[in-house]
Amino acid sequence: MGKKNEEQLRGMNKLPAKKWIAASLAGVLWIMPVLGSEGLPQWASGPASVAQAASSLNVTKLGEEVITSGAIMMKYKFTTVRSGKTATGLADVIRVDLNNPYVSLDVMTGKGGKLTTRQSTGGMAAETGAVAAVNGDYFNTGGEGAPIGGQVSGGVVVSTPSQLNGMYAFAVTKDRKPVIDQYSFEGLLTAEDGAQFPLAGINKGAYSPEDGSSTYSHANAAYIYTDAWTALERPKNSSTTPTEVLVENDIITQISADKALSMAVPKGAYILRTHGLGAQFVKNHLAVGQKLSSAYTLKSKSTQQELDPASLQMMIGGHTILVNDGKATSFSRSTSSIGGFRARTALGYSQSGQYVYVVAVEDNANSAGMSLTELQNFMANIGVWKGMNLDGGGSTTMVDRPLAETSATLTFNTEYGTEQRSVVNGLGVYTSAPKGEVKGIKISGSTVLLIGQKATYSLKGYDTYYNPIDVASGNPSWTASNGSVTVNGGEATAVKAGTATIKAASGTASASTEVTVLGGENLSSLTVGTATAPLTPGASVSVPVTALAKNGASLTVPPASLKWELIGFKGSVQDGKLTVDSVDPGVTTGYAIARYDGFSTAVVLSAAAATPWENFENVSYPIAFTSNVNSVTGTAGVAAGSAEKAGSKVLSLSYDMTAGSGKMYAYAQLNGTSGKNIPAAATSMSLDVMGDMSLNWLRAEVVDGSGKISYIDLAKVIDWNGWKSLNIDLSGSGIKFPAALKRLYVVNVEEGQDERAKTGTVAFDNISFVMPSLSSEAGLPKGTAAMSIGSKSITVNGAKKAIDVAPIVKDASTYVPIKVVLDAFGGSAAWDKNTKKIMVLRGAKALDLTVNKKEFVLNGKRQTAEVAPLILQGRTLVPLRLVSEQLGLTVKWEQKTKTVTIES
């Protein structure tokens, strides 16, 4: 078992415990109660469509793998119907067998087992030696970093529950029985002279109670803070001025009237933090050198029974109950602030009490998330008898230790990719099994490769308790099937697309693993790190290429896996670096086309480089703050920069959304309603942004000449403080240039709103655009061309010319030879008779088409059209509208004359 420092835990609280009952809570940014339309808490807003969701949710178990003796990982796929459309997703469930003496559950807390420190789920698992873990309780993202609910670890109380209704907690007793219930806290302080005063709680952040006792949790109250609380504020944002008392070994050693003690809590001691009536109790009845005792209890709100925390192995807080008696049940409190289809984390147990189910629902490229109603029915489907939810959304994180491996790794991508949010606590799975005999071996290494990629594989073993064990390496023999992969001494090389089985044998033991080598057909995009480059002799740029598979996997393409074709210049690509030696006469735009197994992307070379667009030093146009919600306030304007921007000017945007609701925007609006002009087609945008760690969404709004609005995601989550440089690919944005940048803004979306800060300040500086079209498209012909169906002629800028093939209409689409379009508007096309592919190059566009396939590739991104190129009477014809519009041209159709007009 990952060793936890039990002496340290017990030192957190040496108070004379009377009787306890488990109480915990989960919440992110839960300071105020969720209010209904009449301002009253909606504690019983049950799921409106439980029956409907239950009938439409289809759950399939994909497989399972042992993590350790007593804990297995199970993977599920679910499908459901949402608004008439089918949605699919994935859920990962760790089932813990409480009848197994070697496996246990415990709460992981921040860094070093302390509150107010915060750490990722994976970080806490690594620190404590957990073999699997999920994120835990809800917390106030603007607070110090303490759970909203109660927490018990190893029988030691770390934090007490807040006075909030409908909040459930999960606990396991030391005789290994699971419990889910609601709990309240009662405590009493007793002075040496016999005077008594209520104790409100232990190690709590500030919040607004729901019992009507006070406006703020810490007003007229007394709280205890143990050495588990590392922050110097106890707590911050409490709206109260404290009188604090240091108690060591039950003796008062310091009293600080009307101000906080300027110290952390010493080990084994505690600080009594009081205000109002509590401070009056200190003034009237406590003195340095006197004794101070306390007693407290937790009670079940459903049974009024008391529970001694010493009888608990652990307890962690949650939110609403989800499942009771094996069925979806009414929510115990409002779920409006945590609604929508999000990543989810939940806990439950079986009817017998033998199994605990640790549930995590994915919300990423492979999974559509779940609503709470869907989560209820999923849990009931897999055997949960009673269950509750934990913190979800961006906090949802699960790690587990794969069989034969030595540490836990991320089970699936979070809502923010591989990034893990820092949280206040988590639930860990631990093993105390002794070392067993070798039970099996497995091959460890990558299961997905790209052609040309090399990977190293090793043999790892696991014992009779499914824990990792060293195995004698000896001299294992390695083989691979079907020719997709070759292997030599544990090093494999991917040769061609397909699935291969790699086998290893050592003595009488053997193992095998399947390795998929991705081909071009398996990719959704190829992205070059440098999409544009200077067309200048001697220029050299790095051109790393990343492949995105259709299954969401992102891989770096080995340079040896790419075939490069250089058009318009002489040069080379060596070890991922493109070098221009010379430029062909008369060429203003060159192309470096990279192909991976037939899938192409391109670097466009021109005289263009990053063009400075705005540094806010000499702004002559108005900048204003606006919002979609009247109650959202803020400021926007040019201001002096901070930190590394000191001495320069920046665009500063401050916002306050605390009085608003729903989806809220805070705009910095440039130049009134017209915005600032972007003169030419931009393939990328770069800017410096000062983040505020608000976890909000950062966007830009661009409008073209026709009034069409395009939105640019600058950052899906503002998860940094200070200045950071951002680079945004605009090549697939669909923006029609020239255009104008109208707004830079912060979004606080409604779903998961409790996770994000509603106040903050961001700033912008040094906005630049790469506009290769300024030179790469400068020489392209402009004007108008017209063709009629069945006529072998084209009129270009008023001049009529003959063409060898007339346009035709097939399945309501107009087809022409691509040469007709390119002759009129510039560009080139190349035909590969072996692959039946057409590569079209025009300006900053590289378009790959395949005969009889609706899929096409534009600048390295796979897309789908309604029609496909075809071969008719020995001629290759392309869909006119598809090709023209992808190349930046406009197509108009006149039904009466059956005339097609193309404009550039």
Automatic annotation (TrEMBL):
Gene3D superfamilies xref list: 2.60.40.1080, Copper amine oxidase-like, N-terminal domain
Chain ranges of the Phosphodiester glycosidase domain: 254-430
InterPro entries assigned to the protein according to its UniProt record, in alphabetical order: Cu_amine_oxidase-like_N, Invasin/intimin_cell_adhesion, Mao_N_sf, NAGPA
SUPFAM superfamilies hit by this protein: Copper amine oxidase, domain N (SSF55383), Invasin/intimin cell-adhesion fragments (SSF49373)
Superkingdom of this protein's organism: Bacteria
Start and end residues of each Copper amine oxidase-like N-terminal domain: 795-902
The protein's name: Copper amine oxidase
Organism: Paenibacillus jilunlii
